[in-house]
Structure formats: structure tokens, C-alpha cells
Amino acid sequence: MNHDKILVILPHPDDEAFGLSGTLAKYIEQGAQVTYACLTLGERGRNMGIPPFANRVTLPAVRQKELEASCRAIGIQDLRMLGFHDKTIEFEDPKVLDQTLLDLIHEIQPTLIFTFYPGYSVHPDHDATGAAVVRIVERLAASERPIVQCLAFSKDTKKDLGNPDVSVDIKEFLQNKLQSIRAHRSQFQAAELMGKEEMAEAELLQRFGTEKFYTYSWS
Amino acid sequence: MQVIHKEEVQHRIDSWQDQDLYVHLEMTMGAYAAHFDSNKQPAANFLTNAVVRYSHGTIAGDGPFYRVGLKMDHGWIYTEGLTEWDETDADQLILAGHDAQGKLVVSLQLSREPF
């Protein structure tokens, strides 16, 4: 399906990298305008680089630069850093959060929104961000509702939601994806994410060649 | 950040005795603790920019893990597991403990200005 205006709403710099950087690069090549609203700067991230080149005080600025580099790697035209604080999305005044996101939806008029699936995205900020998006879009008239496609990766996901209904082949955009991941150099040196050795091309394609989403249903 | 230099940290602690300072105190298992290992639980706390004043402060331990205790009029600030510090800003003392993967586990920061 063709989408001219896409809005991505995620809480942390790097949330875009593994889950949907290839999909976004693909849409952008097809002519889409992508706005990425990143709620926080990941100020409370635990990774500081190996050896640590950031600290608690410098991390927000470091991660902002990484986020900007990741967006360049993907081709994202419009990055909005919304200024909320890492770990606090579920505690933010819903009126403030909802109005901020609603204003953005009215401004951008997207036909497609990407976010996290509430309740199936492990990190409380992920779940709270997805819940806010669903809450807001639900209030729009059914005819004005953009499609909402969600990332989900908690252990219960397949049991409860079944298989993702959207599967995007991003093999041709693997370099964008790897560059997006590598842009977050303070965050993605951890062994559990990248493996201890460089992955072979075939393994990369197998692991990263497809991105999957659940279309949120209001029925 | 650099591996803690005990004498220099002690010197900084001493020089800020009996002054109002902003403190950042944090400990975290990481939000993914239970996702990666069901035997673990995600636990964390942080407190940022409370104003504190200590009458006596000490860094202890022989490395690689150091402890800091700051005695206040009505209580204590205590941190264990500190491994690195940042000495670039003379108005801030940034101490943190990172695990074998470089992830922050614990931090204690003092500053003359809010963080």
C-alpha cells in the first residue's frame, strides 16, 4: 500500500533501529514523507559505550547525535524530539502527552502510524507510548483514523496476538538498517544485541531481512 | 569515564564538605531484566536534584568496586559498586558502577548546579 505521510511515535532513540528502519527506508524510497516523533532522549539508558565514553550527564547529548545520524541513515526527513523524560512516559500527565501527540497527528495528517503495541512491548515507556497513540487515534472519527501498525516483542505476543499480519521484505535496505543500528554506538555494542562476532551476510539477511508488525484493530 | 582514582575522588569529596549540593542517586537492573532472564526482576530507582549537605564523606574499597558514604545531619547517603568516575567538570563529581557489559548499574553524582 502507498503512504505519502507516515508518522513514527516511539519513546527512545534507537527504538527505530532494529524494528522498522528498513521499512521506513523502503517507504521513503517510494516517496513517503516520514516524521519521527521521539518522545525522550533515552537519558536513563544503561549503556554508556564500551569502554564508557558517555556518562549520566552527557548521555542525552550523545544520544541526540546518534539519533540524528540514525535518521540520516534511514532518510527520515523530519525528526521531532518531544522532550519527555526517559522512564516517565507512564507517569506523564495524560492530558499533556495526549495533546502533544494529537497536535502532531493533526499537523502531519498521516495515513500510517508506527508505534509499539501496548501491553506487548516489554519496556514501560514502549507500552505507555503505544497506549497513548491508540487512545488518541481511537477518539478520531473512524473515517479519519490512520492505520496503526505496531511493533511487539514480549514473550506473550504470539500466544495472545498470533503472527504479525504485516511482513515487510527489507533485504534491499539492509545497509540503511545496519547503519541505523551502528549509529547508536553508545547503545549497541552489547553482546546480546550484536553477537560477539561479525555476522555473515546470510545470517544478517536471515535475522534482519524482514520486519514485522501488527495492525491495531479497534473492533 | 575513567577507572576511579580513589585519592582524587576523596579530595573532591573533602572539598565539598558542609556545602549545599545537588545529588543524583540511582540504581538499576535495567528494564529488560525479566525479559532476558525470567529469574530476575526489573528494579530501579533514581532521585535527581535533591539538595544535600554532608559533614563527612569517604570513599572506601580497594577496587575495582568502591563504596562511598556521606554522613549528613539526619542520615546517610551510601553507594556500593562504583567503578568509574568523570573528572572533566570541576563543579560535578560523577561516579558510576558499570557491569562487565558496560551497563550502568549504580551511580552517585554531586554537583553545585542542578543536573
Automatic annotation (TrEMBL), chain A:
Pfam families: PIG-L
Domain of life, per lineage: Bacteria
SUPFAM superfamilies: LmbE-like
Cross-referenced NCBIfam families: thiol_BshB2
PANTHER family given in the database record: N-ACETYL-ALPHA-D-GLUCOSAMINYL L-MALATE DEACETYLASE 2-RELATED, N-ACETYLGLUCOSAMINYL-PHOSPHATIDYLINOSITOL DE-N-ACETYLASE-RELATED
Name under which the protein is recorded: Bacillithiol biosynthesis deacetylase BshB2
TrEMBL record, chain B:
SUPFAM superfamilies: Hypothetical protein YojF
Pfam families, per the entry: DUF1806
Protein name: DUF1806 family protein
